[in-house]
Write a structure and sequence with these properties.
Elements: H1 2-17, H2 24-36, E1 39-42, E2 56-60, E3 70-75, E4 77-82, E5 85-90, E6 92-96
Parallel strand pairs: 2-6
Antiparallel strand pairs: 1-4, 3-6, 4-5
Amino acid sequence: MREILNQLYEIDQKSKKNNLTLFDRNMKRIFHEIEHMGFYTKNPLGEKFSEERTDIDATIMGKTNSQMKIVKVLKPIIYKKEADQAIIVQKGVVIVE
């Protein structure tokens, strides 16, 4: 399931980058069905970065400072809902500046 979600994330990002709205409805339906199976993804783009985060693996570009943000997401964070908890299936892979 992890590889499928990664591929869907890439397709979604490429279609948004190229303003291809033709697939929006289909992508929403696919993600809706996946959520019913207990999985969901999170795109942390633009979020503040701190070294205490355990949900991402980051490549830091430039000097480390307290104002660093996630500027690119190579792989999303993938969670699986089990009972009342969200378990990380995959850490996000990001670039931070």
